[in-house]
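Narrative progress, year one. The postdoctoral researcher (J.K.) led the effort to move from monomer predictions toward full complexes, under supervision of the PI. The following entry was the first complex the group processed end to end, covering 378 residues in total.
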Amino acid sequence: MNFKNDDYELVQDFLSGDQQAFNNLARKYQEKIYWHARRILGDHDDAHDVVQQVLLVMYNKLNTFNYSSSLYTWIFKITYTRSLNQLKKRKLKRIITFNFSDDIENPGYENIVDNLENKEELIRMQKMLNKLPLKQREVFILRNFDELSYDEISSITGKSVGALKANYFHAFKKIKELMGKDEN
Amino acid sequence: MKTEERIIKYLDNDLTSEERTAFERELKSSEELKREFEKYSLIKEKIKNQKNLKLNPDYLSSILPEFHNKVHSGKKETLRRSLSYSFGLILIFLIGITVQKIFFNNSDKERNDLEKFTQSLNYNQKLDLLESLNGSDDLYNIISGKEYVDLLENDLVVNEDVLETYDISYKDLIGNLSDNEVEKIYNELLNRNI
């Protein structure tokens, strides 16, 4: 088994009826959930929706968690799936409302991020991430920002380690090219 | 392995220990490798800085209350949703029945109107109507000209469905011939060596 003792205890306490245990779990992971969704989606409102959805799934489905992975990986899998769904929903909404612009509706940096010394860097990085194809973006974010191993990413995304490494290589190369163009 | 691949794998800790040692040795001696390596290292540095970003505490503390609010109002929402679905289904059922009635009533009405119309036609008008519906000028010429009438039933091509729809019977067409016309037709038939 691969789980942190405190996660295990919190899960057990929650399943025994302790609501506070759930709140503690939520507070522990909510920021990671938010940032992962935020980097995939690029938009604060969408990321916020995903956080709420993931918490709801945790609340309803923690009794099905079987400790075959770490709780962290389990939560990330839910976050990853919900983020992709949100992306599809956003695309469909744009088609229906004839809004074909790729501009992000609410980057939401000012009110949401606390230590925003270098807002420009954050915006720049997000723009570069948005330009990556989804397969490259997701592995780049999971590897660099979420610091997951290739095996963990493979169990989350369902893709082979070889494919993930290839996508990661292309993503990194693309980011380097975009950064070079931006500086010129 | 290409240079870029080696750099990315090195930064990703994906080289074997031997490959790593060789790469570091080359990095010290090659300016070109160093330049390329620095570009990728800079990206890693920027990523590291952004990992330190924190969300506003006020925003963070608002997430759970909003969540719990949704969970508790969700139970009421489920009942409301069930009622809405039931109402929607009843409405669809009623609309379906109404549409069906209108459709069938119109269909019957249409049929009645057609029958009334055809009853109001005289003999020649009925023929005109049949001809236009059958799409055949020959039939009209044969009957209306009254010069050559073939009374054998299988030669008189009449669309039975059309007859039925417009409520025109075969006897209506033939029954209106005068005695002289019948005599003429009879003589023609005799001369034809049927």
